Amino acid sequence: MWIRTPARMLGYFGRPQQTADVLHEGWLNTGDRVEVRTVHPDGPVLVYLRGRVSELIICGGANVNPDDVDAIARSVPGVADAGAFSIPDATFGALVGLAVVPADPNLDERQQRRLQRSIAAAFRDRAGAEARPARIVITGALSRTASGKIRRHELTRRFTEPQTFPTANPDEPRAAAVGTQEDP
């Protein structure tokens, strides 16, 4: 979203390149993704915030909204919370990773695998191949900001290894490969 207002910021202190990236001829790029709708041709214009551009996961040229991934995962029984994150990938640019907080914190390994399979099945039924998590990890909590937003970059750092993660089916690079990683 781009806005023009006399109340906009003048720039980032001591960071001229970041200022140049967001300010152009009096316009400010907020970094927000928005959806604009009109209910009636003569009616008001409604603007819906749909997340941050910087949080999009670009998988093989497709833009994946991590909030949509979170919503599908949270709809699965047994999931208390979920956060999608980006896994760097040499072939696709990025793959979708998913950190899941189970409703029952005392799941044994077999129950965790069952929950991961349920989540993978939900994505096969409700999402395109690019939005299906390549890795589903079980964790005790998601890192959040003071305002409650998921710290997706922290999830990427925490759950991404230097190599590309294996997939469940080598013929489908974005197939859901389930696995767990213990909390540090």
Structure description:
- With 184 residues, the chain is α+β, with helices and mostly antiparallel strands.
- It folds into 2 domains: 2-52, no CATH class; 54-178, ANL, C-terminal domain (GMP Synthetase, Chain A, domain 3, 2-Layer Sandwich), CATH 3.30.300.30.
- Helices cover 23% and strands 30% of the residues.
- It is built from 4 helices and 11 strands.
- It has helices at 16-22, 66-74, 109-126, 152-159, and strands spanning 2-3, 23-24, 27-29, 32-38, 45-52, 57-59, 62-64, 79-89, 93-102, 135-138, 177-178.
- The strands form 4 sheets. It has a 4-stranded mixed β-sheet, sandwiched between helices. The protein has a 3-stranded antiparallel β-sheet with strand order 1-3-2.
- Strand 4 (32-38) and strand 5 form a beta hairpin.
- It is globular.
- One of its GO terms (molecular function) is medium-chain fatty acid-CoA ligase activity.
- One of its GO terms (biological process) is fatty acid metabolic process.
- Residues 159-184 are annotated as: Disordered.
- Keywords: Ligase.
- InterPro entries: AMP-bd_C, AMP-bd_C_sf.
**What is the makeup of the main sheet?**
4 strands, mixed
Helix/strand order: EHEEEEEEHEEHEHE
| Structural class based on helices, strands and sheet pairing | alpha+beta
CATH fold field value of the largest domain: GMP Synthetase, Chain A, domain 3
Task: Using the alpha-carbon principal axes, give the shape.
Answer: globular
Straight-line N-to-C gap: 37 Å
The second-level CATH architecture of the largest domain is: 2-Layer Sandwich
The low-confidence runs, each spanning 5 or more residues with pLDDT under 50, are: 163-184
Number of helices: 4
